[in-house]
Backbone:
């Protein structure tokens, strides 16, 4: 990408970095993520944006060791991520997948309790510390009023909050969340957004569809285009009309009034390439 | 890491006491009542009939309880007991019948009931499929094939049949795992591999029926694969108790792992679980449970499928409660089924597997009517 002006210099306060990442699935011919470098500053909120199939989820899977990179490496809190044992990794990094089964009859509180898994040995019971972390998570995720309800009886938004509560009880300083707002109604989108932005001393990376929410959520935005970083930086520099055209292939307007970025999508542009058809080059920009 | 001093609850959790709640009490008490009633029926009635009082006296006969040599003969075996305590005394006819024939059978039902139920609970969680049974990963077909092979070609080793059956089941399980493995496994891959191995082994087994000249061999194999407690004796009970102690402790200890597995592999992994190792370890414990059941009673169907299901609908999904419930409901159901198998069509006895099958079918019919959605697979 000619526009990829990401500068890869080391940030001393980055808690999670991926450098030169190449991520691919065993059955696929092309890598989903190619030569991606990303720094996640400590205590920041990072929104990962990009159209469907741009590799947001795959990048999150690579950063959380669900998928090992065929090239490049991920460093978490100063250590290569492969060197962590599974339990230790879970104490430092939480990951909330977009889709997950919901066991019948499990209550919200029981789900949140499972967040303590990496802190408890095989035979260990619940310690005072576990109890406190659970209570804190229930409060932070605003689950107090529904803590005894079965998760599968709840609305989509409440379920999302319950799972976030589980991740919060895990007490990791980094949390990766895949599409936390998808399929939620407006109120619940805002609620989840508030919970995720209201966390102190935590670094949260979230893949997001909606640019408006991404602008509100992220101190820092990373825009992915077809498996590569198109641009990254604060919302005011990344969210531009050029981004709408190049990455999302739409015509639109971006305004910056009263410190609030507003995005007005208008119409789709003519497709610049058919990404499913391997014969046409994918980098012909109109 | 949390400080150790704050782990006040740990002992309670390990033995599952933390999870005892009001929902568990009625099924434990109910099951114990059923066990007691069925146990009394089982020792009282039969070809040699006696009154309940006589049977009760025989069970608590001081000639057994008061004499370490006699009690030891049953609980430890002839060899150990006689070297420790010397010769055992003669017993009355009633006491002999109760202690030699009826008591071991009731105890065996208890042991097999526990193991099938907890094995089913584990497999339903590991495969995330509430219609899984202890035999879903090839155990029954492996055991069945081993039995017919032994009867056909190694007739002289027939006294080792239970061990061969359990080994056959274990081999089939490992084969299922090897087939399912592709840089890791998943519940669906495991179940499909179970179907593959099950189908091939069952075909081989049925094919061998045609090779057998002797109809007795076929009938023997058939009785074995239907599941029956007719020929159990103290040796099986003794080994069964030892193995059960191990499987019960390990299954209860693994209860929280099962809960986390049910959240899906992705989540379990994110929470720091070495998913493949835990899943294989728990499966091995469940195979040990299934294996000892097969070795004692052959392949008794449906207990391992129904019991965890029933328990879960009453106590919820948390496995500490599910496993504890299974420890009581499993034996109650199998004891009751065996009473029916032994006495209902007297003087003919039917294999207990037929009775459990006849109970299991209607139960699922009832579930189908009551609940719209059942199982994920």
Residues:
């Amino acid at each position: 990408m000619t526009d990829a002006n990401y500068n890869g210099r080391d940030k001393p306060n980055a808690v999670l970095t991926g450098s030169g990442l190449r991520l691919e699935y065993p059955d696929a011919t092309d890598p989903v993520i190619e030569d991606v470098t990303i720094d996640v500053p400590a205590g920041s909120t990072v929104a990962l944006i990009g159209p469907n199939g741009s590799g947001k989820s795959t990048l999150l899977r690579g950063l959380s060791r669900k998928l090992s990179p065929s090239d490049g490496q991920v460093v978490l809190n100063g250590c290569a991520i492969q060197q962590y044992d599974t339990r230790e990794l879970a104490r430092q990094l939480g990951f909330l997948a977009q889709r997950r089964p919901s066991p019948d009859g499990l209550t919200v509180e029981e789900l949140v309790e499972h967040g303590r898994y990496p802190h408890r040995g095989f035979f260990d019971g619940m310690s005072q510390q576990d109890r406190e972390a659970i209570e804190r998570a229930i409060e932070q995720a605003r689950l107090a009023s529904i803590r005894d309800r079965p998760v599968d009886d709840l609305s989509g938004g409440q379920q999302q909050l319950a799972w976030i509560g589980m991740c919060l009880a895990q007490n990791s300083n980094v949390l990766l969340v895949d599409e936390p707002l998808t399929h939620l109604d407006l109120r619940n989108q805002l609620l989840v957004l508030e919970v995720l932005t209201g966390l102190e001393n935590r670094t949260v990376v979230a893949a997001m569809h909606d640019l408006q929410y991404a602008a509100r959520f992220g101190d820092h935005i990373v825009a992915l285009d077809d498996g590569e970083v198109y641009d990254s930086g604060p919302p005011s520099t990344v969210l531009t009309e050029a981004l709408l055209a190049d990455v999302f292939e739409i015509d639109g307007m971006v305004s910056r009034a009263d410190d609030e970025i507003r995005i007005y999508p208008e119409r789709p542009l003519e497709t610049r390439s058919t990404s499913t058809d391997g014969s046409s080059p994918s980098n012909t920009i109109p | 890491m949390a400080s150790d001093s704050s782990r006040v609850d740990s002992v309670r959790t390990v033995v599952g006491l933390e999870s005892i709640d009001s929902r568990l009490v009625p099924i434990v008490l109910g099951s114990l009542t059923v066990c007691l009633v069925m146990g009394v029926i089982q020792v009282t009635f039969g070809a040699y009939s006696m009154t309940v009082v006589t049977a009760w006296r025989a069970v608590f006969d001081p000639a057994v309880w008061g004499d370490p040599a006699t009690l030891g003969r049953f609980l430890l075996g002839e060899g150990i007991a006689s070297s420790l305590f010397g010769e055992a005394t003669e017993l009355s006819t009633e006491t002999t019948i109760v202690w030699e024939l009826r008591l071991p059978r009731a105890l065996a039902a208890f042991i097999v009931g526990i193991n099938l139920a907890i094995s089913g609970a584990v497999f339903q969680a590991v495969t995330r499929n509430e219609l899984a049974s202890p035999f879903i990963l090839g155990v029954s077909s492996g055991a069945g094939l081993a039995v017919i092979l032994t009867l056909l070609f190694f007739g002289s080793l027939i006294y080792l049949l239970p061990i061969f059956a359990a080994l056959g089941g274990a081999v089939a399980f490992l084969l299922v795992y090897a087939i399912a493995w592709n840089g890791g496994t998943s519940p669906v891959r495991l179940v499909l591999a179970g179907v593959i191995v099950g189908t091939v082994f069952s075909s081989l087994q049925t094919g061998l029926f045609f090779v057998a000249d002797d109809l007795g061999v076929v009938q023997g194999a058939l009785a074995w694969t239907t599941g029956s407690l007719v020929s159990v004796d103290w040796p099986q009970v003794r080994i069964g108790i030892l193995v059960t102690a191990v499987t019960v402790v390990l299954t209860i200890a693994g209860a929280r792992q099962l809960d986390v597995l049910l959240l899906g592999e992705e989540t379990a992994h994110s929470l720091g679980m070495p998913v493949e190792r835990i899943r294989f370890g728990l499966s091995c414990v469940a195979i040990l449970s299934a294996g000892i059941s097969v070795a004692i009673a052959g392949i008794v169907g449906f207990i391992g499928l129904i019991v965890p299901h029933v328990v879960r609908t009453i106590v919820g999904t948390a496995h500490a409660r599910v496993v504890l419930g299974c420890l009581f409901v499993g034996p109650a159901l199998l004891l009751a089924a065996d009473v029916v198998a032994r006495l209902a069509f007297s003087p003919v006895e039917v294999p207990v597997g037929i009775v459990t099958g006849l109970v299991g079918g209607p139960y699922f019919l009832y579930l189908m009517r009551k609940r719209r959605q059942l199982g994920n697979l």
